[in-house]
Amino acid sequence: MTPGRVLLTQTQIRARVQQLGKSLTRHYRGKRPIFLGVMNGALFFLADLVRAIDLDETEISCVRLASYAGTNSTGKILGLDALDDSIAGRHVLIVDDILDTGRTLSALVARLKKLGAADVKICVLLQKRGKQEVPLHANWIGFKIPNHFVVGYGLDYDGRYRGLKQVRILTD
Ligand code: 5GP
Ligand code: MG
User: Fold this and answer.
1) Which residues, including other chains, have CB under 8 Å from residue 53's CB and lie 6 or more apart?
2) Is 101 in the pocket of ligand 1 (CB under 6 A)?
């Protein structure tokens, strides 16, 4: 398996991240949000997004969740127990690489609400068309993409290809 066709160029990603940053700045002005990155996939997206917003009081936090082995969703979400009630009363923006079946993020949203978050919103770089199994609304979406397994800009295939500057389709 190797990275094939380029789906999103560095220029396209950069431009879209700037737009998202402006929109998030308008939305969170006057609030003190926590940007909660889902590691490792959201690594670059989170870092670029935070630098594209213009808010003085944004906090950054990370949670490490995993559901995938290879290119198959395992259905089991690992890592939610690392979150604690310091999230209570806070406005949380979940930042993730990709919304696929929706299982990971819906489990995360449920956990944050249980811990008493005042507000939970979602920003994803990518959303796969026609793959969602769990009803979940992403408030900000960078790009809607066809149903391919993609790598690059943080997205990996068993740990590989995260550092690619573009988003590319994994091929045989
Ligand atoms: P979900 O729970 O929505 O099915 O899966 C979400 C997680 O699975 C994402 O955060 C990401 O880590 C992983 N994932 C889903 N689709 C892809 C993909 O096309 N490429 C890569 N690299 N990871 C994916
Ligand atoms: Mg992920």
Assistant:
1) 21, 24, 25, 28
2) yes
Q: pLDDT tens-digit profile of 93-149?
A: 999 999 999 999 999 999 999 999 999 999 999 999 988 899 899 999 999 999 999
Domain of 166, in residue numbers: 2-64+83-171
pTM: 0.95
- Say which residue the tokens 């068993």 belong to: 158
- Whether the upstream peptide bond of residue 139 has omega within 30° of 0, thus cis, is no
CA 3 remoteness from chain centre: 21
CATH number, domain with residue 26: 3.40.50.2020
> Domain tally for the chain?
1
* Sequence-separated (6 or more) residues with CB below 8 Å from residue 164: 3, 151, 152, 153
Best residue among 155, 158, 160, 170 to mutate for probing ligand 1's pocket (most ligand atoms within 8 Å of CB) is: 155
